[in-house]
Specification:
The protein is α/β, with parallel strands linked by helices and 405 residues long. The protein has 2 domains: 8-208, 3-Layer(aba) Sandwich (Rossmann fold), CATH 3.40.50; 216-404, 3-Layer(aba) Sandwich (Rossmann fold), CATH 3.40.50.300. 35% of the residues lie in helices and 19% in strands. Helix 1 (8-16) packs across helix 2 (31-42) and helix 9 runs antiparallel to helix 10 (250-262). The radius of gyration is 23 Å and the shape is globular.
């Protein structure tokens, strides 16, 4: 049996990892293998040797909490093969438990003790049930977090800081570091204080992977047209033309503007023009009405169309010509594709994190392509430009702020 192989930057990360750390690497950097390598070495294995080195038997029980899609597509099982580990007890080499499950079921493992947990795709933000389960699990077990985007603001780090024992609870963190606005009707953070300590604590737990991509991404903005008169009418009148009634919320206002813009024929034509020169294309979209449009387009003879969303979970086609329609919320993370070099973003998602995750579906270590192409379809409307500015600033688009403006 050949030994476990790691790239130099992965081995460097393993050597800097410790219990309770966040392994931070861009999408496609091999965080899963690096996290497994840390567990493997911690339990007596060795990497970059000619022959496989067995762990102590039994090693710690291993629990991997990941996305539902990664669990269902058995992506983690594939990553375990070089380490001679499996979730199948009938063919296992070691006398330990290996479990791969989704964040929706994380509460089931609260009673585990002296095991090792890999929390994949950072989900411990806020103070909901997932965070409560996470904090109970980390008290009794070894653990690490894997994340491409560990946190946008200091409050995102609170659960990990508490799990590491830096603070007793969320309240202590707030008392020591958060100043709230006096003039807001609801709790609104005005500023953080004593951020020097926060930086030091973050640096103690964050392990960045020094990953240099072998690919060159090309992000192309493709401007499309829109019905200016109808757009101005909705914007000025705040009237819902589809249901003939006043617009009631900021969310509805933005949805209607986007629907008008996203259904324009020019946007559909740009999709077809790109697909004429790119034989295999992934298309990301947001809304069901966009899916209806994309399914009705005539992509040409011999082009297979498949989809992954809340309605259907079809695999990526194997042919020479195909279009794979993926809804952001369902498929922006947890799967890889090295069969194509092209993604079309039919519409923008509100979240920078989601857009980054979506781009990473084809930007993988083992892709045969050197150049990758990302086509962003946008109009020159206020709504599209505002979303674009938020994404450029690595922020989430704020509907209420746009509605007020």
């Amino acid at each position: 049996m050949s030994g476990v192989k790691l790239y130099d930057y992965q081995l460097d990360a393993v050597n800097r990892m410790k219990n309770g750390c966040i392994l931070c690497g861009g999408v496609g950097s091999g965080k899963s293998r690096t996290g497994l390598a840390y567990y493997y070495i911690k339990n007596g294995g060795k990497v970059n040797t000619k022959r496989y080195v067995k762990m102590c038997d039994p090693p710690q029980d291993l629990y991997i909490i990941t996305t539902a899609r990664k669990r269902d597509t058995l992506e983690w099982e594939e990553e375990m093969i070089p380490f001679m580990m499996t979730t199948d007890e009938s063919v296992r080499m070691y006398k330990h438990k290996v479990v791969v499950d989704s964040w929706n079921n994380v509460h089931k493992y609260i009673g585990a003790k002296d095991a090792f947990f890999i929390f994949d795709e950072q989900r411990v933000v806020g103070d909901g049930q997932w965070v409560k389960s996470f904090l109970k699990i980390t008290k009794e077990n070894d653990w690490i977090l894997l994340s491409a985007t560990p946190g946008d603001c200091w409050t995102d780090y609170i659960p990990v800081f508490v799990a590491n024992g830096f603070y007793k609870n969320r309240t202590q963190f707030k008392n020591e570091h958060i100043i709230y606005s006096r003039f807001s009707k609801f709790p609104k953070i005005d500023r953080y204080i004593n951020t020097g300590r926060l930086v030091r604590l973050r640096d103690r737990i964050l392990v960045d992977m020094d990953f240099k991509r072998p690919t060159t991404p090309h992000h192309e903005t493709v401007y499309v047209d829109f019905d200016r008169a109808k757009y101005k009418e909705i914007h000025k009148s705040r009237w819902n033309p589809y249901e003939n009634r006043p617009i009631e919320t900021a969310s509805e206002f933005c949805y209607l503007l986007r629907k008008l813009v996203n259904t324009d024929l020019s946007r559909q034509q740009e999709v077809l023009d790109i697909c004429m020169t790119r034989p295999r294309v992934i298309i990301f979209y947001n809304f069901d009405y966009e899916l209806d449009i994309l399914l009705k387009l005539q992509y040409g003879n011999g082009v297979e169309v498949a989809q992954w969303n809340g309605h259907k979970h079809q695999p990526i086609p194997d042919g020479k010509k195909w279009v794979y329609l993926v809804q952001y919320n369902a498929g922006a993370e947890g799967w890889n594709c090295i069969k194509t070099d092209t993604i079309i973003f039919y519409s923008q998602n509100y979240s920078y994190k989601v857009m980054e995750q979506a781009s990473g579906r084809i930007d993988r270590l083992n892709t045969p392509y050197t150049d990758l192409w990302f086509y962003h379809l946008k109009s020159r409307t206020g709504i599209d430009l505002a979303i674009g500015r938020a994404l450029n600033d690595k922020k989430k688009f704020n509907e209420r702020k746009f509605y007020g403006e």
